[in-house]
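Sample intake sheet
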Amino acid sequence: MSVVILTPDPADPSYAGQWPDVLARHQAALAGAGVESRSEPWTDHVDSGAALAAAPLVLPLVAWGYHRDHARWTAACAAWARDGVRMLNPPGVLGWNSDKSYLGRLADRGVPIPPTVWAEAPAQADVDAAFDRFGVDTIVVKPRVSGGAWKTLRLSRGETLTDAPDGPALIQPYLPSIETEGETSLLFFDRRFSHAVRKTPVPGEFRIQVQFGGRYQSVEPPPEALALAETVLAGIDEDLLYARIDMARGPDGDWVLMEAELIEPDLYLAQAPDGGAAFARAVKGRL
């Protein structure tokens, strides 16, 4: 029997040039450990998990695009849990991790995050107040449900808010370290550290995703970054097969959590020194 990896709807043009390569890297790593796998669009299993329940394990690793159809995503997560799909990470995690309000709950557990204003529907008044509250000249506005920097805005003081997220969002001070040091991602399998990648934007850009020209480099994380990642994982009680902890340096030089990616992160197996062997071992161990 094959492990199932969830993917986007093949008819969806979003990221069409990216996710097949990511899927291929996952499958190659698994094949190297003798684990067979096949793919299924997550959009084919929204109302019922019965067709997935026969699989020995379902990995939602390439279920991209949920942020554009969040109501169906939450319905799918509920169906998968109800129908006993053997899924890792678990459907419950997939549900709460799709809304960035989880950052506030991790902050309550002692995880440092950037100063944050939570807005139900961000307006110009919210943006203007945030500049004064943070004492900065540049801020970032992000939808609470987003992915790949979707509808994420960088605004300077005095700039008019346009194309604002049409739902709940968070407003944070822009971290200048993104342009110099970039964002660092630490990858864990079964809560064991595997590898780290530094992602830097091209000049003039603040988004570090590859579709915006972001450049990725394998790095050895400093002890402080590794300690923060361990603190984040300690604040999450559920079973985790994989986790990508994204962080950046704040103005004081200390690391702060940007995201805990537990749904469908690129695991950057191309930058993993072992080529994804640790990932494959973790999956095989669960089988």
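Comment: DSSP finds eight helices and twelve strands in the chain. The chain has a mean pLDDT of 94.
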